[in-house]
Amino acid sequence: MTIAKIVGSNSHVDYIARVIDELDTSKPPDADDYGFSTFVSVPIDESKIIGVVYNSMLMNPDYANYGPRLSPTPELGTFSPDFINEQGCLIGILLLGSIDKSGTVLQGVPNRVIPAGMDVVKCDLETVTKFHADSDGGLQIHYYSQVISHAGNFAAPLLESVIERLSNGCSDSDAKRLAVLKQNLTWQRTVGGMRL
Fold this sequence. Notes:
The protein is of the alpha+beta class. The chain has one domain (2-194). The protein has 5 helices and 7 strands. Helix 3 runs antiparallel to helix 4 and helix 4 (155-167) packs antiparallel against helix 5. The longest helix has 23 residues, at 172-194. The termini are far apart.
């Protein structure tokens, strides 16, 4: 399901996408489809760049527009057919890796640059599982340090949310490894909060 379109970037791994709305499609995505820690992909050629939603921003150019209005908002479409509602929602996407056309998973900084206008698709459970499976079928999260480096204040809550999602349905040994990661995050947040 397409949920957004790429409109810009802050860095090679930090992209901005505009959530599609009623002007773009007859069935726009629900708020849950682009919520915090939702895994997404950007199909390029026959591969997929995988990322996660880690931030959101509201766009409202009308906020400071206090000038007189010639007609009420519901009638603007009739009296001003060229009027476009520029309000919207932007989401920040942190890139985590890629899945190439042969199915090979790379976790880390993708080598591709994503052009503006590309579709952002919500990942299904199968894609998320494939992206996190190593060659032995175990769980891998090699992008952990990448999230810590690039997600700023959202790094710990993002990783905790990802760990929570991945914990459902994984093996006992992987669940124990995830529990250790979560304890480590909790400890870092506690000790980090005590610094003067």
